[in-house]
Amino acid sequence: MSAASGDSRLGAQFAFLNEADRLKSVLRATTLVDGSRPENSGEHSWHLALYALVLADQAGPGVDINRVIRMLLIHDLVEIDVGDVPIHSANGLAHGSVDTMAAEAKAADRIFGLLPPDLRDDLRALWEEFEAAQTPDAVFAKSLDRVQPVMANLMSGGGTWTTYKVTRDQLESRVGVKIARGAPALWEWVRARTAPFFG
Question: Where are the alpha helices (DSSP H) in the chain?
């Protein structure tokens, strides 16, 4: 690799990393566990990577925790353009809607497109794998992505469940199913602790 091409590659890598810093300014609906303020999406991504590291023993057969950590570090980068779309929100973009998915794909084109082609293709494929949630790695990553806000709500006295008037059925269908799919023991443990909030 020539010095010029090396400079160009580093320039692209740092352009991406500098853009990724903007994720720290994207506020989420979920608060910190102490309820003091909303967490930002950069904090959320870091915390999820730590969840994967610490809860690796909850992963099913064939799960590569290193790949899961990589997925979780990049999974919300599209929120730089789209913002946080809360799973229980009824306003604006709906979580998982066609419009939201299109906006996120456009954001992925732009953000991963800042990288050199090999990294762009690798990280974009990893992001798409997470979104599709079909591989063992992605299924476990999605489970962690759902369980972390549940823990924040438990620790903060109800958090967004109160804000969005979430029912037990909504928690089960929007969150519980995804947690149980990739980490059944986690959902069993967490679900038992939600009873005081839903009766």
Answer: 3-20, 41-54, 65-74, 79-82, 98-112, 117-132, 136-155, 159-163, 168-171, 177-182, 184-198
**The CATH number of the domain where 80 resides is what?**
1.10.3210.10
Residue 62 token pair: 């064939």
Closest CA to 108 of 133, 85, 128: 128
- Tell me the residue range of the domain where 134 lies: 3-198
What 3-state DSSP class applies to 180? helix
- 126's CB contacts (< 8 A; 6+ apart) are 67, 70, 71, 74
Does pLDDT of 91 surpass 60?
Answer: no
CA 86 to CA 93: how far, in whole Å? 9
Q: Reduced to 3 states, what is the DSSP secondary structure of residue 31?
A: strand
Three-class SS of residue 100? helix
Confidence (pTM)? 0.93
Query: How far is the CA of 193 from the CAs of 47, 65, 141, 145, 177, in angstroms?
Result: 21, 26, 22, 18, 16
How many independent structural domains does the chain possess?
1
pLDDT at residue 4, as a whole number: 65
